[in-house]
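Why do we bother with holo predictions? Because pocket geometry can differ from the apo form. Keep that in mind while you read this record for zinc ion.
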Amino acid sequence: MSGQERFFIFREGKILVRTDRREIAACSPGDWRELQPRAATVLPLDKGPEGSTFAVEMETGFEAGERFAWMSLRRLVGRVADEEFNAWGKAVQLLHWYRTHRFCGRCGQATIAHASDQAMICPSCSLSWYPQISPCVIVLVSRGEELLLARSPHFQEGMYSTLAGFVEPGESVEAAVHREIGEEVAVRVGGLRYFGSQPWPFPGQLMLGFLAEYAGGEIQIDGVEISDAAWYHYRRLPLIPGPATIAGRMIRHYQQILDGGGPGTDAQG
Ligand SMILES: [Zn+2]
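The structure, written out:
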């Protein structure tokens, strides 16, 4: 393999990076030769003018040598450009989909990769599976100079963020916003405005960001998904997600609007 090919390499959920380079990057053809993989799953990712990219799952227990290290994908958030993070995210999602769709859910036959589409297909009954993406709404609710922020039991200590939840079958994203906010904190909102989106490969969400205005009700937390929620003045916020996440972008975007700085420069869309 040669040229500008790049390899997004995983083993047991961790990504492989070089330890002797300043920038975190996917492996080059030279790295690939150095690794000498014996048994690896290799899936084509993209074929662009700069060369092809591949998602690779190394066998369990594969040791990469001292010039390489295994790292959590989450640690990449904010440390590489969005496009680069999304390429790693695409790779991990395709590998997960490939691993979990090896047999037909209808007739039990072993599946095969579709010749041209990014799909797994059953050679017996022709049922096919495409990579799974789960749409998820994420909402910043404001009330004048206050923002409604909440924390989930699995958040890091002291961290508060926007509200989020999965879109259900048969539901519009707008309806999902109203339902999730109602379920999690029992307030009503209006004036929904679409903000932007972010692929979030943990394991396969597509985060759809909205700004919403408070329209009534008192905060009552559900106590399960949400362990605390409160209104915070935009200049006295608790610990919030970093600017590489859509939650962090929406919060900073709204702070800039309130500071009279216009719609901000780091917002998406
Ligand atoms: Zn089948």
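The chain has four helices and 14 strands.
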